[in-house]
Structures are given as C-alpha cells and as structure tokens.
Write a structure and sequence with these properties.
Oligomer: single chain
Distance between the termini: 88 Å
CATH class of the largest domain: Mainly Beta
Number of domains: 2
Helix content: 10-25%
Number of strands: 35
Radius of gyration: 30 Å
Largest sheet: 9 strands, antiparallel
Structural class: alpha+beta
Strand content: 35-45%
CATH topology of the largest domain: Jelly Rolls
Length: 568
C-alpha cells in the first residue's frame, strides 16, 4: 500500500494528464508574461525617493563676494551694480503704472567708471519692481555693459507675458568716468518707415551676414560700391529700425529685422553724439499686459560681473528729478553683501519642500542649464522600448525662465547621458542636444513652449513638435504624456496635454520606429542652452517595468568645482 501512490500517478500518466499539464504550464507562462509587462508607478515624493543621479547638484568651492551698492548720493544716482540671480533694484514709483500704450521718456547724463567689469550687467529705465530676471517682466530699459572699446548700450523690452525684444546698436562711450548725455523715449503710435534703399534690401536676409559677405552681392548691382559706403547705408537702415546689428565672436553681423512683421510703437535712443537709433514693437507684444511701475536701476539676473556708473541731470516724463537731496526712492537688494553661490550650474533633484508645486510634502526640480556639464536625476524603470505603451503625468510649476535655455523630462537612456557628460568634460563644443534614446517633454527657450521630443537610436531622426506656449508664471499645472505604439497605423503617436490647453499630437515616422530606442530611466535632465530655467514636478505617475525585491536607493551626490570666470 505504501507504494500505491507512485503507481497511481504512473497509472494516470495518460494523454489527458499530459494535456492538463501542458495547459497548466501555458497558463503559468501567460501569468509570468503578464507580470513582466510595464506598469504604472506612482511617486508622491513624501520622502526622498533615492533616485539615480549624475552631476545634477553643483557647488562652488570658492564662491565670490557680491557687494551691491547703488542708490542716491548727492547730485546723482548709481554705484556698483552686480550681475546676480538675486534681485537688486532702486527706483522711483510710477503711479499709475505705464503700459506700451503710453508715451514715456527719460534723459540725463551718464558716466561709466573704468573699473566696471566686462559684459552686459545693469539696466536703466522703466520696469516692474515685483519681478525681474535676465530680462525683466514688464520693462523697457537700456542695458549697460562694457566691451573692449568702451561702455555699450542695448535696448531691451519685455511684456507681462514674456513677449520681448532686444536691439543692439553701434553705440559706445568711453568707460573712463566722463559724462555723456543720453535720451530715451517711447512713442506708442510710431511706425517704422518703409524701405527706400531697395538695392540694399535685396542683399540682406534674415540670417546673419558680415559686411564682407554682403559687399560682393551689392557690387553685382553697383560695381563701384565701396565697403565704407555700404557701411554708411547699413547704419542708415539701422537708425530706421530696418536691420539688426550684432557683435558676435569678434564679427559685426547684419540681418533684416522683424521682416514682414506688423510694427507699431517706436523706441528712440540717443547717446552722446552716437547715431540716433530706433526699434519698433510687434503687434503681438503691444497686445500683452504691461505694468511699468518704477523708473530706475536694476541688475541683470545672470552671473557675476559689475557695472559702475552714475546718472546726473535726470529728467523722467518731462519732470526734472531733484537729486540735490535724497528723492526717497525705494529699492530691494541694492545695499547688500553676500557670497555668490550661483553660477552656470546644474542644481536640481529631490527637495523636501513642496511650496512651488503646491503638494503636501516633497517635490523634484530646480535649476537647469545646457552647459557646461550634463546631468540627470531619474528613477530606474527597467528596459522600455518604442514597442511598449508609455505614459507619464503629474503636476508641474514652471518657476523661472530666461532666453536661450531648455530642459527635458521623460524617458531616456542613462548610458547616453553619461556619454554626453564624458564628451563635455573632454570638449564642451562637441557635446550637444538632442540626446539619442529619449522620449518625453522639453521646454524650449524663447517664448517658451511645451514640446514633445522623440529621438531614437539614430540622432539624425530626432523630431520635436511644439505645443502651446507655457510661460514661467509660477502657477501649478498638470500634464499628461501618452505614447501609443499601435496608433498612427502601428508606427506610434505621442499625445501631450497641459491643463488649460488643448492636447497636441506628434506622429512618429516609419524611420524612427525602425531605428528604435531603448530607455532605462524616467526623470529630469539637462538639455541645451546657455542660460537657466527653473522647473518643479510632483505627484508623478509613469510607466516602469515591475521590480522584484528592494530597489536600489541612491544618495544625491554634490559636484564641487571652482567658481568659473564670469560665473559661466
């Protein structure tokens, strides 16, 4: 009897049992396959998630000291104005505030001191005191800097919705402490004159050209034309706001300005015998809200450098300002001394704070740059490809932005990002964006837009589709990113939704799908640009392969480096 059990099993080892065993095995295989399919993972950041990271937190080993020191002194305003992301301003209250539909003007005498640093540093003009930036929201002002040849002046204007423009001009004065008269005015009804020098117009494009590149084309129609004569005609077009002039890399570059735009509202600038300069606003910028509630001085919120200048004989909107005594203007940060810890650095990751995204506790995000190093902060999601359905959603707050900046969040390959870092350390000019094996959302510079990105294993097949304008207005929004590999005839489609805006889609190309992509991380990473932006995320749900056992937790590592020259 004690051997009956094996015999019984042996007895019933029949075709039926074989069939049942095979079905059971197949069923177990299906169950195993189901458990290996990607699932949605949720992270609320109520504690440090211990995500993988590389070069995302940087600190200076030797931060310099900034000493903002500008205000009123008998007979003048001004002083030492430092570039810093810490706001600093000193101004006269304008009540009621002005807009780009109002007429306004200012004039005086300015002296730029010889111990000013290099670069564009400070602003003098009309602005809103509640928020500045690399360019101040709601502002129209002269940008003051120092170059090899002396002190230079630009004109910057920005609406309350980040509609903006800048105009470089061939306007230089000695930076030797001597005084030079200046006048700045805005006429909301002014319009740009039409081209009369039509031969010159045909030689110009919306791309940048040197005079040496323009001259041969001009000489085809005018064989006797000299370089000096061409330069005079370009300067005449510049005075009328028809062309732009740029100093870049030691070259003087010329291009058509706002070609075919509808323009109304003219800025006129005159400095110490330099040619009169004009620029004009677009209709789009004119429609934006603007509130200029101060006139005065404010710093450029970038990195490290000082302008020292003084203004006398000041007149604002037809009223002479008595500077023989303290005018009682208000200010912020204009009399301050501190260690400058910010430079062109990456500084993002987990934070126990949740003030920016409005959550209960914890968030991720921070400051992003495209240079000099590449970094990321991301969760290990296993292996995903373009054959998998992929999704992520959550809360986002776009907190700060400056022109020429960008960042990326979504899925990517960590090995590719580390390879870019290695290239950047070897030669920063050869490490660029887009990065291969990426799928997600980018914020691109300019008038910011939320953008879908798909870059497969072949970089040349990278494709982005721009969505709605997404400005750094510091509000809390929600977003949803869905990649469906079966849509678009089985080639794949991306659908992105930002709260308050209609969804937009991006179809993959057959070449992209064939090239394929492999992702192993979900999170934040640097992308491109020479300036900064600040973005924060919370309450994220995202696709990931299921894990078994305890996940690896990483510490947030800090990269220490010497403070770079000029903060960049």
């Amino acid at each position: 009897m004690k051997h009956s059990h094996p015999n019984t099993l042996r007895h019933f080892h029949s075709p039926l049992i074989c069939t049942l065993t095979a079905m059971l095995a197949a069923s177990m295989t299906v169950i195993a396959a189901d458990t290996s399919k990607p699932r949605l993972r949720t992270e609320n950041f109520d504690r440090d998630p211990g995500w993988d990271n590389s070069s995302n937190r940087m600190e200076a080993s030797n931060p310099p000291t900034v000493k903002q020191d500008f205000s009123w002194s008998p007979g003048k305003i001004g002083g030492a104005v430092w570039k810093s992301v810490t706001p600093a301003w000193y101004g006269m209250k304008l009540d009621p505030p002005l807009s780009f539909n109002d007429r306004f003007a200012a004039s005086g005498k300015i002296a730029v001191m010889p111990d000013s640093g290099r670069g564009d540093v400070a602003y003098l003009g009309f602005f809103n005191h509640t928020r500045q930036g690399w360019r101040a929201w709601s502002s129209m002002a002269m940008r003051i800097g120092k170059r090899t040849e002396g002190a230079s002046f630009f004109i910057d204007y920005v609406s309350g919705k980040w509609g903006r423009g800048a105009a470089e001009m061939e306007c230089v004065i000695p930076a030797d402490g001597t005084e030079h008269a200046w006048r700045f005015s805005y006429d909301p009804e002014a319009t740009r004159p039409d081209w009369t020098d039509l031969r010159l117009r045909t030689c110009l494009t919306t791309g940048r050209q040197t005079i040496e590149q323009i001259l041969p084309k001009a000489q085809q129609a005018e064989p006797g034309l000299t370089r000096a004569a061409l330069e005079l005609r370009l300067k005449a077009a510049l005075e009328n706001g028809l062309v732009s002039f740029l100093h870049r890399g030691g070259s003087e570059l010329w291009l058509l300005k706002q070609d075919k735009n509808v323009l109304r509202g003219g800025v006129t600038m005159e400095v110490a015998g330099n040619p009169v300069f004009r620029t004009f606003l677009t209709e789009e910028v004119r429609k934006d809200p603007v509130a200029l509630d101060r006139f005065g001085i404010f710093n450029q919120q970038m990195f490290h450098g000082v302008a020292k200048f003084y203004v006398r004989d000041l007149e604002v909107n037809g009223t002479k300002i008595d500077l023989s005594r303290d005018p009682g203007w208000d200010g912020r940060g204009n009399k301050a001394e501190y260690l400058e810890r910010d430079f062109q650095r990456l500084n993002f990751g987990y934070s126990p704070d949740s003030a920016r995204t409005g959550g209960k506790q914890g968030e991720i995000g921070g400051d992003f740059f495209g240079a000099p190093l590449h970094g990321y902060y991301a969760d290990d999601v296993g292996r995903l490809t373009l054959d998998d359905p992929i999704r992520f959603s959550g809360k986002i707050s776009f907190f700060e932005g400056s022109t020429d900046a960008g960042m990326f969040f979504g899925f990517f390959n960590s090995a590719d990002k580390k390879a870019l870092l290695a290239k950047a350390l070897e030669n920063p000019t050869k490490a660029g964006w887009p990065q291969t094996n990426t799928l997600g959302i980018g914020l691109d510079s300019g008038r910011y837009r939320i953008t879908s990105w798909c870059t497969p294993a072949r970089k040349e097949l990278s494709k982005k589709v721009e969505g709605p304008v997404f400005l750094p207005e510091r509000d809390q929004r929600t977003f949803d990113f869905v990649y469906d590999p079966q849509a678009n005839g089985g080639v794949g489609r991306i659908t992105v939704t930002l709260s308050g805006e209609p969804p937009f889609t991006a179809d993959l190309t057959p070449e992209q799908r064939k090239a394929g992509a492999t992702f192993d991380r979900f999170g934040l990473m640097s992308s491109k640009g020479s300036k900064y932006l600040s973005v924060y995320l919370d309450d994220l749900t995202y696709t990931a392969q299921p894990t078994t056992g305890e996940r690896v937790r990483h510490k947030q590592e800090i990269v220490t480096m010497p403070y770079p020259a000029s903060g960049r």
